[in-house]
Model the fold of this input.
Amino acid sequence: MTTQTLYQLAAEQKSAEVTDWSARISWVIGLLVLVAFVYWLMRQGWKWRGNLQSDLPAPATAPESFADGEKLLALSGRYHASTTAGQWLDRIVAHGLGTRSRVELTLTAEGLDVVRPGAADFFVPAADLRGARTERALAGKVLPEGGLLVITWALGDRLIDSGFRSDHSAEHPAWVDAVNHLTSTTEGIAR
Done:
């Protein structure tokens, strides 16, 4: 073999081009369209659920005298969701009750004030509180045993479970005791 032949062999292309840009771009565009379609379907489902729950009255707002009342307990943490009582996957989305957010809870003899930055605040009068317990799951959120504080309350003629997680989960038992005590006191007065 001559030197010239070696140069010619070295200069020749040894393999076919691997990247087929048109096929790659088509796949990327197809996947983006699929993701956008799935997102649109999820959004439509959320709106549909809100329409189904449109008969639910709007939650109350804190009365002016609430700030003057003696605070029984305060909690800082996360609001996970509200569901139909006893049905941990049936999320309530009407009136913003399905929106997860940070939360500041305040319990007084008047009721429970739920302040949510970035979402709608609401107030549960003491007469509407039905009880509290700790759970491990609510609205698709699963935590260790006792990781969620679930407060049951009445909104119109429906019972609702609202799930909260304190920044310090050791506070949950005190909240369960206080809400249940307030509930039993309020029921005694109503009779």
Remarks:
- The longest strand covers residues 71-84.
- The mean pLDDT is 87.
- Residues 52 and 94 are 9 Å apart (CA to CA).
- The beta strands are 71-84, 101-108, 111-115, 122-125, 129-135, 137-138, 141-142, 148-155, 158-166.
